[in-house]
Each structure stands twice: as C-alpha cells, then as structure tokens.
Amino acid sequence: MLPRRCRMSLLKFVLAVFACLWRPSSSQRAFKISSTACTLTTDATSCQVAQTGDAALQVVFNQGAKTTLTLDMSSTTTCSAGGVHCPQVFMVTSDDIGNVVKLSTCAYYKQADYSTHILTYTFMNVGTSFAFTVQDDAGVGRAVVPPGALRECFCYCSGTCATPANNRLFCGHNSPR
Cβ distance 120 to 87 under 8 Å? Predict the structure, then answer.
C-alpha cells in the first residue's frame, strides 16, 4: 500500500494527464453553410451553389408538389476536385411530403473513389411543415426527415464504386427514450 501522500500525488498526476488529453472540442465538426440556397421548382440533377470552403448545402423545395433532387457525387456538377467542397450536410426546406434528396455514387468525394472509407452525410430538415426522404441509387427511402429533425447516413460501397448500384446509404433513425 502506498503512503497517503504518494496516493494523492498519483491521483493528481492521473487527473492532470486526463485533463491534458481530454479536449471537448477535438471531435467537433464544422461545416461552412452555402451563402446562397439552391431553390428547386422542378426535378433536378444539379444544385451546386457552393463556393470554396462551403460544405453545407441549403436546398429549398419550392414547387408545392413532389420534387426530386438527384446529386451524382462523382460528377463535376456536384463536386469538383479543386477548392469547391462536395456537400456533406444538406439543410433542406421541404414544401411537400413527397420531396426526395437522392445521392448517387455516394462513395465519391471530390471526384475520387473513396471505397476504402465510410463517408458521412447529414440531412437536416430546417422547414416547419413537411418531411422529405433520403434515397440512394437503389431508389428506396433510407431515411425520412421530418421538420426539425436530422438524419445521419453512412455511405458504403461494395465492389466497384463507379457502378451506382454498389453505393448504399445506411441511415440512423434517432428514437426518443
């Protein structure tokens, strides 16, 4: 058994090491919001309004009827290999329960195949009235995002990622306790 003085010194040392290693902000993610919203009045396959440094895309569905935004994450119209970031966070205002945000070839980032990684996408419904659905290349709903909610989705590619059907979103649905 260590003397009391040694135990207190050891405890202080352990606490000091823990305090130095634990940093609450070290896991914080920050995404610059696009300064302009992408407003959709018809189905669309491009919505790139991001500037260098933007990673959160504002999407406003404004048709008053079912509308689909399909973004090919391997395409230069969605992402570029240069300074413009691929959207990772989607801040959506939905005006119809049938609206869909569809990510195609989601395992691409800045036109590069990231099949050795799991890519994360976050979908926020910043609207007040209508939910929207998140889809991948399978064309099925992977998540429904009601107003005021968010869903986080992970993209996994099995096989050749250039084949859209090999890219799949796995989305978490938070449930209240």
Answer: no
Contact of 107 with 119, CB cutoff 8 Å: yes
**Looking at 101-115, 123-137, 141-155, which range is the least confident one?**
101-115
Range of weakest confidence among 76-80, 97-101, 129-133: 76-80
Measure the CA–CA gap between 7 and 14, rounded to whole angstroms: 10
Nearest to 154 by CA among 112, 121, 124, 113: 121
Both tokens of 61, joined, read 């569905």
Query: Is the model's pLDDT at 4 over the cut of 70?
Result: no
C-alpha distance from residue 57 to each of 49, 97, 134 (Å): 8, 20, 15
